[in-house]
Amino acid sequence: MARYVKISCLTAPQLRVPPETGLEDTVVRMIAFWERQLEQVLPDRPDLIVLPECCDRPEKSGYTAERMKEYYRYRGNRIRDFFARVAAERNCWIAYSAVRELEDGTFRNSTQLLDRSGSVAGIYNKNHLVEGERTNGGMLYGKDAPIFETEFGRVACAICFDLNFDDLRLRYAAQKPDLILFSSAYHGGLMQQYWAYSCRAFFAGSIYTHATSSIISPVGEVIATSTNYYHYVTRTVNLDSVVIHIDYNEAHFRKIKNKYGTKVTIHDPGLLGSVLLSSETDEFTALDIIREFGLIPLDDYWERANAHRCAPGNMEP
């Protein structure tokens, strides 16, 4: 059954607040700043808003590590609670990325996923910090790769430097998320598309304004981006989609279209050899089509190909 979700990736530069500014004034300015940013996407009524890494950290120029910690401690959960109120009032999810202090006094670089009621539905702690976040910022590395269940699908999170590490990507690929939320200060280039295709998941990345924010399909195709003029992007995607290879499946494509017409989309991004099959109806799911026509999902096809390679007599001595 079609699972449409409207996603906004909201990019913004870090707010410049001189370090000698009072902490209360800094928090007030930060909330006002994000109120202005949200005004750009809220009229489109997104189901989900993704924010960049450390979105409520002042621009660091002039800040010592200790002054930044003072800010974090004073801020507490106030800005998270501001976003939670927005989520509840506007009936949307928000991926809020920020440094947070735990009860034991240690820090994490985290994405907190706020649901439509404003509650914290899950927390992801950045697994792969850059070294300075630990040595200068006092943060600890995260160790878990959780999947969060939402009404529109299974969601994973990654933050900035995470995108460079295969161990985290492969842990997510094994769990088969529908959507990866990426909050970052760095873009990652082709790694964004590689993660999307490797995990067979849609990818929504929110990056600071020096680079574009993007929404990417499970076949690694960039389907929407922010621009140099408008630092946000909103797009509706259909999470009821399955990646399949053309081999052994293509013979059924015309039969599927003849029977179901616009109720099924088979999208070829070109050059890849794989297509994205999506159900555009409430009558059946993409997996129902897979079963009805005996199609082979991509990961099953790779396993079959490897098994055939290793079968007795098939490999050179």
From TrEMBL:
Which superkingdom, per the lineage? Bacteria
Q: Cite the InterPro entries for this sequence.
A: Aliph_Amidase/BUP, C-N_Hydrolase, C-N_Hydrolase_sf
- Which ranges carry the CN hydrolase domain? 8-239
Q: Which GO terms describe its molecular function?
A: hydrolase activity, acting on carbon-nitrogen (but not peptide) bonds, in linear amides
Name the SUPFAM superfamilies on file. Answer: Carbon-nitrogen hydrolase
Show the Gene3D superfamilies listed in the entry: Carbon-nitrogen hydrolase
- Alphabetically list the UniProt keywords: Hydrolase
Note the CDD domains from the entry.
nitrilase
Q: Which PANTHER family match?
A: BETA-UREIDOPROPIONASE (PTHR43674:SF2), NITRILASE C965.09-RELATED (PTHR43674)
Protein name, UniProt field: Carbon-nitrogen hydrolase family protein
Q: Which species is this record about?
A: Paenibacillus ginsengarvi
